[in-house]
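Shipment paperwork, digital attachment
Item: protein structure file
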Amino acid sequence: MSLTNGVEMLQRARAEGYAIGAFDVVNWEFLQGVIQGAARKKAPVIVSLAEMHLDHLDLEIFAPTLLKAAELAPVPVSVHLDHGESLETVERALRAGFTSVMLDGSLLPYEENVRLTREAVRLARSFGAAVEAELGAVPGREFYAEERDQGRMSSPPVEGRFLYTDPDQARDFVSRTGCDFLAVSVGTVHGLYKGEVRLDFDRLERIRKAVPVPLVLHGGSGLSAEDYRRLIAGGIAKINFYAELSHAAVRAVKEAASDPGAAGILRFLVPIREAVQRVVEEKIEIWGSAGKAA
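Attachment content:
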């Protein structure tokens, strides 16, 4: 197979009614788990690196590893920048070889989001890459808690409510920016749900009819298999996923640490890879992308 920018991958998923997993990776073990899980399920996959994790990973150093792993994988793999916060980071990712990038202007005024996304599209086209944008805002840990803890955000962007995507505005946004994928807000949250899940499926259907590009779900952790099926039927073709991977890895480390005979760092690293791979395989089955690598 080969490294891909994901456009054809997601267009096919949209047309055939399944979703591609976009899994954020934070180290080699996560990357191994994602690639091996996708290979075992014969599924196309997107490996993502989120800007919020660049405090822990150097983009230019880690990018060659991501790209080589993608090139050697037996299934189609796209390497994606998740939640890019500026054009500078987008350009860094493009120069490093990423095949798709996200410019997240969802917390900006609408016209500023349009302007920045349009500029990201212009820049990405010169590298042969694709662009994901976001309209509406998905609240939760990824947008607030970790940013707040690191001193980069002083107040929550969403005060106890969702900033849902407006279907008519989505039509205008896609038309004016030329983005390849659109992340939408229909009731999910970043991180794991702590209360009742309330998804606006009617809104999602209206968005699907309003825009011609594949739709993206952020905040997919913690949803039921039935939730996923209904979201995919409503037009979701890409699901960004991290929180459950992180929690599974933490549980694996704790279990390894509880073994009185445990010795050596590898006793912790191998369980991380195995835990990530199990979750990736489970979600690929639920999302319907198993066997779609051909």
